[in-house]
Write a structure and sequence with these properties.
By secondary structure, this protein is of the alpha+beta class. The protein has a domain at 44-106. The chain contains 2 helices and 4 strands. The chain has helices spanning 21-24, 26-41; strands spanning 45-54, 57-67, 76-85, 90-100. The chain has a 4-stranded antiparallel sheet with strand order 1-2-3-4, with helices on one face. The longest helix has 16 residues, at 26-41. The radius of gyration is 19 Å and the shape is elongated. The relative contact order is 0.18. Residues 1-29 are annotated as: Disordered.
Length: 106
């Protein structure tokens, strides 16, 4: 009897090493900025409000939960500007804004 052959399963992209922001674009730069900032300041990131490419790499604005409160609309958040080099390494960060979750931009 002939042996039945099954097609080999392809490796998923999640098992490969993460690409640098240079290779992966804005999405990879945003993820790298969130990981780096969380590790440094110890506050959870809420999301990314801006990503832009510049001459030296990437500038990402990351929103962070700095002080959770009840009700949630009174929690304090902050926006941090995170600069990454071409390879996704953190060059600098700074807090540019602090605000209550329930407040609107003026």
């Amino acid at each position: 009897m002939a042996e039945e052959r099954r097609p080999r399963a392809r490796k998923s992209s999640t098992t490969t090493a993460p690409r640098s922001p240079r290779a992966g674009g804005a999405e990879h730069a945003a993820r790298a900025a969130c990981r780096s900032l969380e590790g440094l300041i110890g506050h959870p990131t809420e999301g990314v409000s801006a990503v832009r490419r510049d001459d030296d790499g990437w500038c990402v604005v990351v929103d962070v939960l700095e002080l959770p409160r009840i009700p949630d609309t009174t929690s304090l958040l902050a926006s941090y500007e995170v600069r990454l080099d071409q390879d996704g390494e953190l060059m600098e960060y700074r807090r540019v804004r602090r605000y209550r979750r329930g407040s609107a931009d003026e």
